[in-house]
Amino acid sequence: MTRLETLRERLAQSGFSPKEDRGELTLVVPAAQYRDTCLELRDQLGFEQLIDLCGVDYSAYGDRPPEGPRYAAVVHLLSVKHNVRLRVRCFCPDDGFPEVPSLVEVWPAANWYEREAFDLYGIIFEGHPDLRRILTDYGFVGHPFRKDFPLSGYVEMRYDPEQKRVVYQPVTIDPREVTPRIVREPNYAHEK
Hints:
This protein is an alpha/beta fold. It has helices at 3-13, 34-43, 110-121; strands at 19-21, 24-28, 49-57, 71-79, 84-91, 99-101, 124-126, 155-160, 165-170.
C-alpha cells in the first residue's frame, strides 16, 4: 500500500473524504469546520507543519460552477512523521465579505501567510491577532490579486517636487493590447 493510499484510508477512518488529483490529496472543508478540522489533522493525524497558505480567486476558474463560492483559503500541510502532504481547501461562504477562521493558533506560521491573503485577495481571517496589509501601501485601494482588479490599478503615485512629498493621482496609463503579433512569411509551416 502506498503512502497516499494509507493517508486516504486514515482520513476516511477519521470521517474525511479527500479527493485525489494528479497524485495529490485535497480535502475540502466547510468554513464552519475549518479550524477544528485543522486541529484534528495536526493532533490526530500528525500534520505538524504548515508549508503554505494562500488565497485563491475562482471567479474565472475553468471547472468552477457559476453559482459556486468565489474565494478560498488553501493550506498545504506536511506530516514529517508519515512523509505525506495534504492540501486543505476552505471556500469563503460569502463572496461579498470573504471570511474564514484564522489558523494562527493551530500553526503560528500561518500568521504571515494570512496577512498576505488578506492584503492581496481581501480574505478576512477571523481571530487573527494582527490582520493588516503586509505588501501594499496602507492607503492602497482594493486587492490586487482579485481577477476583477484592473492591470493598471486605480491610482498611481509619484514624487511631487513642489509639495516635497509623494502624491497619489488617478492612473494616467492608457490601456493597451499586450497580445504579441507574429509576422511570418506565407506558407511558413507548410512543406514545399
